[in-house]
Amino acid sequence: MNLQSIKRGLIGLYHEMLPPVLFFFTAFLLIGVIFKLLVTQYSIQFTAFTSAAVAALIIGKVILLIDWAESGRDFGSHRRIVVIAGQTFVYAFAVFTLGIGERILEAAHKAHSLREGFDMAIAAVSLDRFLGLVILISMVVFVYLVLQEIERAMGKGALYRLLFKLPDPISESSLPPT
Predict the structure, then answer these.
(1) pLDDT at 140
(2) What residue ranges of the chain have pLDDT lower than 70?
(3) What 8-state DSSP symbol labels residue 78?
(4) Which is nearest to 163 in space by CA: 33, 25, 19, 14?
(5) Which pLDDT value is given to residue 174?
(6) What is the pLDDT of residue 74?
(7) Could you please report the per-residue DSSP string of 12-72?
(8) CA distances for 175 relative to 60, 72, 103, 108, angstroms
(9) Under 8 Å CB-to-CB from 94, ≥6 apart: which residues?
(10) Cα(58)–Cα(177) distance, integer angstroms
(11) Environment class of residue 87 by beta-carbon count within 10 Å: exposed (0-12), middle (13-18) or buried (19+)?
(12) d(CA 26, CA 29)
């Protein structure tokens, strides 16, 4: 493995990660800005940009890893909505599990004991807020997966052309007679 092949691999990884990271960054930034607007009356400090960037990078990597893990599987016998719902459930479960684990480890660090940290995390849990966050992230992931399936069905680049390219001007000869 030479330096040139490593460079090509890293550039390929960058180009592969760019679309999902941009999508999730934009979605989480909008969610963060809305959150910040809603909590200003309570003087809560919140940095939407940093939170959106970190969340987008993490979710973007997770999406690519799971896509890579599923690349050998054939879901052709299932309806696409079932596959998308299943994938969304897996992502939601992962976010839920990692979120709980993060809170327990954070509390354990403060308490200097895993058992005490677990007890502190359970005592301080705000299940409604946490489940709301998991549902919100799951909805963003669901929209991303739907767009990914539309892209696969229409062909590579077709969704981008549909949404971002100017439509072709309609010539007078192609207009129906009046």
Answers:
(1) 86
(2) 1, 39-54, 57-58, 61-76, 171-178
(3) S
(4) 19
(5) 60
(6) 61
(7) HHHHHHHHHHHHHHHHHHHHHHHHHHHHGGGT----HHHHHHHHHHHHHHHHHHHHHHHTT
(8) 44, 47, 62, 70
(9) 62
(10) 54
(11) buried
(12) 5
Task: Identify the pLDDT of residue 21.
Answer: 81
CB 93 within 8 A of CB 85: no
Question: Would you give the DSSP letter of residue 169?
Answer: P
Distance, CA of 80 to CA of 147 (rounded, Å): 12
d(CA 5, CA 10) in angstroms, rounded, equals: 9
Cβ distance 121 to 103 under 8 Å?
yes
Helical (H) or strand (E) element with 129: helix 127-154
Taking only the tens place, the pLDDT of each residue in 16-58 is 777 888 888 888 888 877 777 776 666 666 566 666 666 776 6
Q: Distances in Å between the alpha carbon of 105 and those of 49, 129, 140?
A: 25, 19, 26
